[in-house]
Amino acid sequence: MKDRIKDALEKVKSFKESSSEKIEEFRIEYLGQKGVVKSLFADFKTVSNQEKKEVGQLLNTLKNEIQDRIDTLKAKVSSDDSSSDNDSLDLTLPGNKFTLGSRHPISLVRNEIEDIFARMGFSISEGPEVEDDWHNFTALNFPEDHPARDMQDTFFVEGYDDKSLRTHTSSVQIRVMENEKPPLRSISPGRVYRNEAISARAHCFFHQIEGLYIDKQVTFKDLKYTLMQFAQQLFGTNTKIRLRPSYFPFTEPSAEMDISCFICNQEGCNICKYTGWVEILGCGMVDPNVLINSKIDPNEYSGYAFGMGIERITMLKFQINDIRLFYENDKYFTNQFKSYIV
Questions:
Q1: What is the average pLDDT score of the chain?
Q2: 294-309 confidence digits (pLDDT tens)
Q3: Among 223, 221, 139, 220, which Cα is nearest to 185's?
Q4: Which residues sit opposite 283 in a β-bridge?
Q5: pLDDT tens digits, one per residue of 155-200
Q6: Which residue in 45, 34, 43, 31 sits closest to 3, CA to CA?
Q7: Does domain 105-337 sit in CATH 3.30.200.20?
Q8: What does the domain layout of the chain look like in residue ranges?
Q9: Rounded Cα gap, residues 254 and 94, in angstroms
Q10: pLDDT at residue 262, as a whole number
Q11: 122 CB-side CA count, 13 A
């Protein structure tokens, strides 16, 4: 038994292989489940009591020597590999370039719109995306049984009778009127939600910017001038606007605003449906009932409001024909807008 241990110890000390594969074979041969050490420990039971102490010490020495030998050889192989890698590394080669990201086209247009109105003196207001019925509907002149509620397909929050995902950022305007005193001049950008079928022209969530101006003796003329300045700064100084009568529960009178088609210069194209005009927003004078609901005296103050979809304007500016492209996280799509400067 002692001779077998000493013979194995000699072989271990003489083992000098320098490849990872050979070292692993050596480990399995001596320390594996069917290896030399396991076999010797199995035969240790047959050793006489007088020799057990000496043989046991030899066995432990053998096991430790094998493990040390394996660790030493593995460290040497790893060091050689590292040196080889360093020798082949050409430090004169240029480094890998870091690819810079780009802003999303919706963010670009939103920032541009915000900058335009900021120069006109409008502040930016934000509010919650989960809204109560008062701010989302009732305060905006939507009675419970009013057919105007059918104009907005709403996502209601399960378990709450009066909670829903906001259908417009007009709810933020109510909060502004409730918490601040006139004069008020504010825009409310943000994401809104409507239960609509997703298609190339519509989505169940999108982005809006709504504007509000409340002061003494505000007239429709002020609204028209503000929107004309906005359109010319966003689409070009030659842009013309027209206002068509419309209906919204929270404004009276109300209008839809069209701009002259800047793609075909009003000669007619598929974007403007050969009319020369493209609709971009809705607007009107704030209904007196909305002012009363917000505790503002309509006999002393008046105001105007407007609202637009950022996706629609972005699609017009960049001639994008499918709204779904905005939400697919395709870097090849967003990288097209790197050169666009607000």
A1: 86
A2: 999 999 999 999 999 9
A3: 223
A4: 255, 306
A5: 888 888 788 899 999 999 999 999 999 999 999 999 999 888 888 8
A6: 43
A7: no
A8: 2-88, 105-337
A9: 62
A10: 86
A11: 26
Angle at 58 between CA 55 and CA 60, to 5 degrees: 110
- Measure Cα distances from 243 to 23, 166, 263, 265, 279 in Å: 85, 27, 20, 18, 9
Report how far residue 85's alpha carbon sits from residue 260's, in angstroms, rounded to the nearest whole number: 65
Q: Which of 107-111, 143-147, 152-156, 254-258 is the least confident region?
A: 143-147
Which residues are CB-contacts of 11 (< 8 A; sequence separation ≥ 6)? none
What's the CA dihedral at 151, 157, 163, 168 to 10 degrees? -40
Concatenated DSSP letters of 90-111: -TTSPPPPPPP----HHHHHHH
Question: Residue 216: phi, psi to the nearest 5?
Answer: -80, 135
Provide CB contacts within 8 A for 242, sequence distance 6+: 257, 258, 277
Q: How far is the C-alpha of 105 from the C-alpha of 338, rounded, in Å? A: 9
- Is the separation of the CB atoms in 23 and 73 below 8 Å? yes
For residues 279 and 273, is the Cβ–Cβ distance under 8 A? no
| Stretch among 44-58, 187-201, 203-217, 233-247 having the lowest mean pLDDT | 44-58
